[in-house]
Amino acid sequence: MDILYLMILCSVSLAAVFLVVFIVYARKGQFEDDESPAVRILFDSDEIKEKEESGNKESDDEKGESKKIEEKSE
């Protein structure tokens, strides 16, 4: 019967520790972004890096072209 009390005490203590850890990380903002990990797994990381790199180049090219068009119109 003594072992039963010990097991109950251990399980309640362990549950309290997990509750405290959860509350601490919830306050730090660990669980705020719940959508991007679900979407991120659908994309390959190489594709994302290539899109970011090509996106930066395209935006630079577009800015340069828009400046050329503005200069021509003046």
UniProtKB/TrEMBL annotation:
Keywords associated with the record: Membrane, Transmembrane, Transmembrane helix
InterPro entries: Cyt_oxidase_maturation_cbb3
Region named Disordered: 50-74
Pfam families for the chain: FixS
Ranges annotated as spanning the membrane: 6-26
UniProt entry tagged with the keyword Ribonucleoprotein: no
Designated name of the protein: Cbb3-type cytochrome oxidase assembly protein CcoS
